[in-house]
Amino acid sequence: MRKIAVIAAAVASGLCLSANAATYAYVSSPGDGLISQYRLDQDNGALTLVEQIQAGDQVNPMAITPDGKVLFAALRVKPFQVLGYRIDSKTGHLTPFTQAPLAESMAYLSTDRKGRYLLAASYGADLVSVQKIAKDYQPSANVLRYKTGLHAHSIRTEPSNRFAYAGNLGTDKVLQYRLDAQTGELSPIGSGYVSVPDKTGPRHLAFSPNGKFLYVVGEMSGTVTAFSIDHTTGALTQIADANGIPARLKLAHGEVRDARNNDLKDDPTPRIWAADLRISQDGKLLLMSERTSSSVSAFAVDPSTGGLEFLDNYPVQEQQPRNIAFSPDGRWLLVTGEKSAKVGTYAVSKDGALTRVGEAASGKGALWIEILQTPDA
């Protein structure tokens, strides 16, 4: 079933840029079960809807394989499963071809850097999982499960693909693992975690392009914490942090949210509710979304030391922005709002300032974003 009306945005996928290439954005909207494909004009930031497909109720996190050939999307209703779509190398068109079980309802999905394993984090079930991806891109029904503390919110491998890290929001820990390249098994590094201050709420992750540093956004604190990554062991060491919530926003400290109180309906206090974190391709600019104020904060990054400096906070028109994403060349930022009827395109200056340049219709509750660059037809 195809409709017309949704979104677009992006997750830099690391595919090579070329002068003759098409850039496609894929956005899931769990409220109407759609995955929407848009074409992004790299010259002016305009978005054009290409098509929409009916994926299923509560389609949410997605991941594109490193070779750009397959998009995986997770459904957050029983039976929990991941859907696989082949991506046409010329048009970006999605064709469903497989499905596989997931361990639980997953809030986060990624692949390792070689596309051999599918990784996921379950916020409600307090676990992360790994399952092998076969050569035909079929995820294995054999799922490795690893219990975490309360509310696991993300898992990714760093650029060398030897180590994996997870944001564990409810315990104020960042989990650290070795990834076995042959089996996909995870084993703890040292104690298995590093701690951050109480009520930080580690959520999403971003790695410096050189693989030396990890950045973690605090959902409840609105801060970004920087860690150095030991090249030999993978152990994390905190080296910096920066607050991304200026006083003018008048936000109180955040609280842990779950299915029982996600909107904090009985609490009228405007509270910090940070969400996504993205780093520019040159590793010099970090952007963080904040849902309560519908804004994006910018941080300068020192690529040599990993140091952070808060630059400013910019309002966006998309209400309750969940995911944000750079275009592959870093000139544009795409923003989805969970309570917005539009997705916005913003020009990004070197200091992180945002200027809205375009919009497109949004799906219901649109949030997850993946972006892909393919050869132009």
From TrEMBL:
One of its GO terms (molecular function) is 6-phosphogluconolactonase activity. GO terms for biological process: glucose metabolic process. The keyword ATP-binding does not apply. Gene3D superfamilies: YVTN repeat-like/Quinoprotein amine dehydrogenase (2.130.10.10). Keywords: Carbohydrate metabolism, Glucose metabolism, Signal. Belongs to the cycloisomerase 2 family. It comes from the Bacteria. PANTHER family: 6-PHOSPHOGLUCONOLACTONASE, 6-PHOSPHOGLUCONOLACTONASE-RELATED. Residues 1-21 form the signal peptide. GO terms for cellular component: cytosol. This is Lactonase family protein. SUPFAM superfamilies: C-terminal (heme d1) domain of cytochrome cd1-nitrite reductase (SSF51004), Nitrous oxide reductase, N-terminal domain (SSF50974). Pfam families: Lactonase.
